[in-house]
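Chapter review: from sequence to fold.
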Amino acid sequence: MAFINKSYFSKEALIENSIAIKYNGFWNKYLVFKKLFISKGVRKKSRVVIYAENRNETICAFFALSEIGAVSILFDPRNPINKSKVQELKPDFFVGSKNNIDSCDASDCFINFDIFIEEYSNMKNFNKDIRFGPSDNIDVLCYQTSGTTGKPKEIFRIWDSIETEAKSVSERLRLNSKDRILCSLPICHSYMFDTIIIPAMYSGSSIFLSGEMLPVELINFIEKNRITVLPLTPTVYRLILRYPDKTKDAFSSVRLCVSAGSMMHASEKINFEKITGKRVFQIYGMTETGAITTDYPDGYTLEEGSVGKPFDHIRIRIDKQIPEDTDGVVSIKSFKNDQWIQTGDIGENKSDGVLLLKGRSDHVVKIAGEKVSLNEIEALLLKNHKIEDAYVCSESDTLLGQKIIAYISFKENEGGSLREISEYCEKWLPAYKIPRKFIFLKSINRDKIHKCISKNTAGKNG
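The token string follows.
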């Protein structure tokens, strides 16, 4: 498929700080970047670390490097690069703005964005005959991730898989040239970059690049800029709902709310729809493959754990331990890739083709011989009207094998006691599923993609 559509050239492509660059300008900037990268010595298979700030130059650099055949390594610019990180990344070049040089411990191979921007500003005439066509089967994108194992690893993607995902996501989400899409989460993550930005550019949509905002700032931004597609995480949606009086009017232009990064529970969807009048559709994916499923637009279900049907380029298999089981470990592959990849999630394929997730394989534990889904307990806790957030895990126990621990934060101006929460669990759960320990927190810390990584206690233990 042709990625560059000249009918979009007069449209705004990327907007940041109220300054827009049109598609024609973006692709001419791409030509400048490609020329200057080559002049700096970037070649096919060069490893180029991009300080992936939410700015149009990051995206432009990726396209230019892909055309050359180099590998773009998207790096979170908030993290300093010291000597040990340089050894880990094994870069041939670093690309970023002038203020990134100070945090880079490899300034001898640093390429400054500012030179590229100056060259682009000096262009007299825009070229209308622009071609873009990377080699399909070479690595063009690399993510540094710890995945679910906690061990750092590199995930590579070839252009063919990125382009196939862009077409599939664009068609399923019905992205179009009238859409105004907010990208406020870090674009160094695959959710924002592969699943939102690349499909949006394929569709000719206008993309608003911003940094992360406080909830009220975010609500005002959505209203002011008439955002139509809103890709966020469950945690951000929860924060938005703290301001119900501001939210409904601000969301009048929004046609599609997307959630990814972690599961949004059915009770949270119901609450969001009740307050805003908008539905939130879940995208399920992983860094290795990009988007796997979504429940938009084939149907909207409030069944706990539903993540919809696979995108057209994805196949799903459930690896069952026992043939009679309905669930097992979810494995996926692209139709252009013969290799099955285990996601580590426990799921069930429903008769209508909808994938139902029941937790992580490492989130299903045995308590006194009984299988227990920690996600089920977490979902139940989040249904309690006093609870803002919850995280459920387990630790070894000499008697039961494992025991369940629940970390809980309460909504603002709400409170709860150990007795209240225990009685709530006793009402809805069998005895072996009730957490043996409750820890009450002011908040549950999550990383930038809002997955639970640490739990700093600041309250009382039960």
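Two observations follow directly from the output. Residues 446-462 have pLDDT under 50 and may be disordered. Residues 23-39 form the longest helix (17 residues).
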